[in-house]
Amino acid sequence: MGEIAFYHLQKSPLERVLPRLLEKTLAAGKRAVVMAGSEERVEALNLSLWTYGDKSWLPHGSHRDGNADEQPVWLTAGEDNPNGAAFLFLTDGRDGPIDAYERCFNLFDGNDAAALQAARERWKAYKEAGHTLTYWQQTEAGGWEKKG
Q1: In the structure, how many helices (H) and strands (E) does the chain have?
Q2: CA dihedral in degrees (139, 43, 95, 109; nearest 10)?
Q3: Angle ∠(73,116,43) on CA atoms, nearest 5
Q4: Residue 32 pairs with which residues in a beta bridge?
Q5: How confident is the model at residue 55 (pLDDT cuts 50, 70, 90)?
Q6: What is the arithmetic mean of pLDDT over 32-36?
Q7: In DSSP terms, which residues pair with 37 in a beta bridge?
Q8: pLDDT top residue among 5 and 66
Q9: H or E segment to which residue 138 belongs
Q10: Which has the closest alpha carbon to 35: 90, 80, 103?
Q11: Partners of 9 in the beta sheet?
């Protein structure tokens, strides 16, 4: 069982937080799969990863781009891992095959009551299953504070 980190977004949207976490993933020499709630969301994230910073470039792709085995970051609405990723990023309230990954990042919008409740339920289920959990809450300044 891998480690599961919950990221409680409060100040910044997913489109600003995800690229930074993916940069750290690639810097650690790991590959990532990002699971989104729909194909439309995959394409929106795909675009945001190309445009999130003037001087940044994050190699990634989706089914539409192809060549999955060459993509260090793979965006999907499914549960596939065609790039052999060790890290899983769950967005949009997704759940996925967490046991197939070394680390899982569960990102949720803390300003959305339904997303917050769903994250609490996933936390409880993962804890009962014996996973190692960490919880990061975004601060007023936009940084991260490890909680409980």
Answers
A1: 3, 8
A2: 20
A3: 30
A4: 73, 87
A5: confident
A6: 98
A7: none
A8: 5
A9: strand 132-138
A10: 90
A11: 109
Tokens 């100040």 locate to 11
Tokens of 42: 């995959």
Query: What is the distance between the alpha carbons of residues 73 and 148, in angstroms, rounded to a whole number?
Result: 30
Residues 64, 104, 123, 42, Cα dihedral to 10°: -10
For the chain, how many residues are written? Answer: 148
- Model-level pTM? 0.95
Among left, alpha and beta (phi > 0; psi -120 to 50; other), residue 108 is: beta
CB burial string 16-49: b at 16+ within 10 A, e below: ebbbebbbebbeeebbbbbbbeeeebbbebbebb
CA angle 17, 142, 10 (to 5 degrees): 75
Radius of gyration (Cα) for the chain, nearest Å?
14
pLDDT tens digit sequence for 82-104: 999 999 999 999 999 999 999 99
